[in-house]
């Protein structure tokens, strides 16, 4: 899903020929000059903090794309950018729909950090407190600024500047301390027609407000009206003045909401709070978020920082659950998060892709199932549009668009109609996410509230896409594109057919689960199609060609067939898996996105080739994580691609949780297979794994692995089989996982429904079916 590749097919073809050199040229030609310097590795800023949760530097990255962000799922901004984005606020028609720019009246700078002054500011991203901090040690004072998107007052971005006078020489007469600051909100928005700001005096302070509407609705048939938005902010003076002995905290607030009353009420409420209390409330809400779950690494500071950074960035883009005003509908997690996606045709415009369900979802599901529910809810909310899309394209059921934003209509960028036309696997990936959600939650409410419907309608879509081939006796799926975007309009993409097959099987299973309240017409028909869906397999070479007619040796863009092994866990012989991994490794472009190497890592871990796995693991993040704030780029240094690339982070988290820790999700069990330490670590812990209402902690050290049962849900008693014995899990229990397992944790079966067959490629003409 490279942005520049999608934009221009000829470029893609050219890249194949010219390789990396061409990549560099193209990137340089599309970026502004100030960004050039940042592609210079020697330019990198250092993170000197030895706290795994704090990233500190004296020097900000010269490329502002590598600045960190703050956010709370409602609003987000990149630090020191003049722009704020809000959940569900887009402007632009169809493929031009992108996050709408709200000028950041919360962008406040200390002048001593803007110009060359003798002070060496310290800039820190504190992921524990979810705040960006600036500290300047001046001659007569210490100035500390903290910037955060409040986790409870989610409409608010808060700037607090504390000025503490230093003890002074009593022989001199000192005057007040004056600190120059500057609000830099940038030019007016091109996306939103804001009315002239209106001042008023509130409680002795000047406050401003302005409301406006987005200019171009995404699609008039689903969005007749523009969207309104209102902002409130405190006036920012030129100087902060503190008496000579004094110390003072100045609080500046900006709130944004679609609803003016809410923006105002929340603004006033925040303004009335004591500054320290306000901050404490924010930190406490983050604390409880982190308390619920976490991935902890010891013995490798760099790795633990990367992991902490990822959860910080993820949670900053996920909606807060305990809030002053109820949260608005959630519009999904896009590949660069909520703080980016505003410039037209850049950073994926804040759209939702398969990235969400396939790359980010699984780790979020295991640790924060409530957020996994929110992600699926976005698709449920957009299902009626997916039904229309299926109709328009002559199919049945739900066909989800390749790119989806405010209305759920297809918003793929105008450059690349072929991805919208062919990358239909997104619809299967949504079903696969639903499958994992059901596997770990057995959420009956979800099934009733739309789950039965979405799963079965996705199956209807695939059933309508499968055409019988009388030569083979198999169903083909024609005119698709797998994750490898170098090969367009192919037949029987192995990846697509497996997610399609799983979707069909899942619908049969779900039809049984839902039968007392949801009518499905002919569930077995779905399974019959799945059973006979073609799966390209080369018997001589014992591997899966990527699609029918794939010519061996052809280069591919990113992991595609390899995903059959993981995340899809498609049953195959060990030898086939080995061959798929080694063959596709040899034909994948070295300049691909990080997730390829994450999935190769997991593959080698499962095959117990640790050396190879560790090499791949290194490759999966080293070139992609940018210092000092652990922001991810889509492409390896020296290239950049989209930033901050949540998709790459997703692959990396999966490598830790499902690779090194060996966890895997199945419809009837949670498995732990050969848990081991990531390279160069001494301890690795996953806390707050949620499985069928139970809360589990998995700890891995050099000598042993332990599973602690923190709590259990009475409805789903759990048993663990260690290969020999069944152990009944009870709360408080700690089980040593001796040996490599697999350790299988299961409960009673769910409603006596038969589990899906889950294999495809069987000739329906064969008499020995089943
Ligand atoms: C990279 O940095 C070096 C040293 O500062 C400088 O000489 C060189 O011109 C830079 N290259 C680019 C492409 O910015
Ligand atoms: C602070 O810096 C800004 C931007 O450089 C400048 O416009 C402003 O005049 C400065 N303020 C003071 C009080 O020096
Ligand atoms: C805005 O919010 C207020 C307060 O919650 C509510 O009473 C009002 O109905 C909302 N207005 C709109 C247009 O939603
Ligand atoms: C799960 O257990 C961990 C470890 O005791 C605890 O920190 C966390 O709060 C628990 N999570 C939930 C949701 O109960
Ligand atoms: C896709 O391939 C089919 C069959 O080969 C062909 O008929 C169709 O025109 C192709 N579509 C595009 C957009 O290339
Ligand atoms: C897996 O290996 C067995 C034994 O070598 C063989 O009989 C079987 O056909 C293989 N399965 C596949 C899908 O190739
Ligand atoms: C890890 O990757 C980096 C960057 O890709 C490379 O420079 C380094 O040599 C690799 N280290 C190992 C141990 O493979
Ligand atoms: C682990 O650490 C050793 C020594 O510091 C280093 O040589 C090696 O490259 C590291 N391996 C990885 C995979 O990071
Ligand atoms: C363990 O439990 C499973 C599922 O309940 C059962 O099928 C199996 O026979 C049991 N194994 C032993 C050794 O008791």
From TrEMBL:
Keyword Transmembrane helix among record annotations: yes
Transmembrane segments: 12-30
Entry-linked Pfam families: Glyco_hydro_65m
SUPFAM superfamilies: Six-hairpin glycosidases
Domain Glycoside hydrolase family 65 central catalytic: 346-553
Gene3D superfamilies: 1.50.10.10, Maltose phosphorylase, domain 3 (2.60.420.10)
InterPro entries membership: 6-hairpin_glycosidase_sf, 6hp_glycosidase-like_sf, Glyco_hydro_65_M
Record keywords: Membrane, Transmembrane, Transmembrane helix
Stored PANTHER family: GLYCOSYL HYDROLASE-RELATED, PROTEIN-GLUCOSYLGALACTOSYLHYDROXYLYSINE GLUCOSIDASE
Family: Belongs to the glycosyl hydrolase 65 family.
Name assigned to this protein: Protein-glucosylgalactosylhydroxylysine glucosidase
Native source organism of the sequence: Galleria mellonella (Greater wax moth)
Gene (UniProt): LOC113516859
């Amino acid at each position: 899903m490279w942005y520049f590749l999608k934009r221009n097919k000829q470029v893609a073809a050219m890249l194949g020929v010219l390789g990396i050199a061409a990549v560099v040229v193209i990137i340089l030609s599309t970026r502004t000059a100030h960004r050039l310097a940042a592609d210079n590795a020697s330019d990198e800023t250092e993170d000197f903090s030895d706290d795994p949760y704090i990233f500190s530097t004296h020097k900000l990255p010269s490329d502002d794309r590598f600045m960190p962000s703050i956010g709370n799922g409602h609003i987000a901004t990149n630090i020191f950018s003049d722009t704020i984005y809000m959940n569900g606020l887009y402007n632009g028609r169809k493929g031009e729909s992108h996050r709408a720019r709200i000028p950041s009246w919360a962008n406040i700078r200390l002048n001593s950090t803007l110009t060359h002054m003798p002070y060496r500011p310290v800039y820190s991203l504190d992921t524990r407190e979810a705040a960006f901090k600036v500290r300047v040690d001046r001659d007569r004072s210490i100035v500390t600024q903290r910037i955060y998107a409040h986790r409870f007052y989610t409409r608010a971005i808060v700037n607090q500047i504390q000025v503490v006078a230093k003890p002074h020489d009593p022989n001199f007469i000192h005057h007040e301390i004056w600190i120059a600051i500057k609000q830099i909100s940038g030019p007016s928005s091109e996306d939103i027609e804001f009315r002239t700001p209106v001042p008023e005096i509130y409680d002795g302070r000047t406050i401003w407000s302005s409301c406006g509407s987005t200019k171009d609705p995404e699609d008039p048939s689903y969005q007749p009206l523009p969207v309104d938005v209102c902002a409130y902010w405190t006036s920012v003076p030129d100087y902060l003045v503190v008496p000579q002995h004094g110390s003072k905290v100045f609080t500046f607030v900006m709130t944004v909401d679609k609803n003016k009353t809410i923006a105002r009420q929340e603004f006033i409420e925040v303004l009335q709070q004591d500054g320290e209390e306000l901050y404490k409330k924010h930190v406490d809400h983050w604390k409880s978020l982190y308390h619920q779950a976490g991935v902890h690494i010891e013995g490798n500071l760099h790795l633990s920082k990367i992991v902490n950074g990822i959860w910080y960035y993820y949670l900053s883009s996920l909606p807060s659950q305990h809030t002053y005003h109820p949260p608005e509908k959630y519009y999904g997690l896009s590949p660069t998060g909520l703080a980016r996606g505003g410039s037209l045709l850049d950073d994926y415009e804040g759209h939702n892709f398969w990235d969400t369900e396939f790359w980010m979802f699984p780790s979020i599901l295991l640790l924060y199932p409530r957020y996994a529910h929110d992600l699926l809810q976005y698709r449920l909310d957009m299902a009626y549009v997916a039904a229309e899309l299926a109709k328009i394209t002559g199919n049945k059921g739900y066909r989800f668009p390749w790119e989806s934003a405010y209305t759920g209509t297809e918003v793929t960028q105008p450059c690349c109609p072929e991805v919208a036309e062919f990358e239909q696997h997104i619809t299967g990936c949504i079903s696969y996410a639903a499958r994992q959600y059901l596997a770990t939650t057995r959420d009956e409410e979800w099934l009733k509230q739309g789950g039965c419907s979405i799963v079965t309608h996705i199956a209807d879509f695939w059933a309508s896409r499968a055409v019988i081939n009388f030569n083979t006796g198999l169903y083909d799926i024609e005119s698709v594109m797998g994750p490898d975007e170098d090969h367009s309009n192919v037949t029987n993409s192995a990846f697509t057919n497996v997610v399609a097959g799983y979707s069909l099987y899942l619908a049969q299973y779900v039809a049984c689960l839902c039968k007392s309240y949801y009518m499905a017409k002919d569930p077995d028909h779905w399974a019959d199609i799945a059973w006979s869906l073609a799966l390209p397999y080369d018997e001589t070479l014992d591997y899966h060609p990527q699609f029918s007619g794939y010519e061996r040796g052809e280069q591919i863009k990113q992991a595609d067939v390899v995903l059959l092994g993981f995340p899809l866990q498609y049953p195959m012989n060990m030898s086939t898996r080995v061959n798929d991994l080694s063959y596709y490794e040899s034909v994948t472009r070295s300049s691909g996105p990080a997730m390829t190497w994450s999935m190769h890592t997991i593959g080698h871990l499962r095959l117990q080739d640790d050396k190879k796995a560790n090499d791949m693991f290194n490759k999966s993040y080293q070139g992609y994580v940018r210092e000092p704030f652990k922001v991810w780029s889509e492409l390896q240094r020296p290239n950049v691609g989209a930033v901050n690339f949540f998709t790459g982070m997703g692959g990396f988290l999966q490598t830790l949780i499902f690779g090194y820790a060996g966890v895997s999700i199945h419809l009837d069990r949670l498995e732990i297979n050969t848990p081991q330490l990531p390279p160069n670590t001494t301890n690795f812990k996953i806390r707050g794994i949620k499985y069928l209402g139970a809360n589990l902690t998995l700890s891995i050290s050099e000598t042993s692995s332990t599973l602690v049962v923190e709590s259990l849900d009475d409805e789903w008693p759990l048993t663990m089989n260690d290969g020999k014995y069944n152990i009944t899990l009870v709360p408080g229990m700690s089980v040593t996982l001796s040996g490599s397992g697999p350790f299988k944790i299961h409960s009673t079966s769910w409603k006596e429904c038969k589990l899906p067959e889950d294999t495809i490629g069987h000739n329906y003409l064969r008499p020995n079916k089943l």
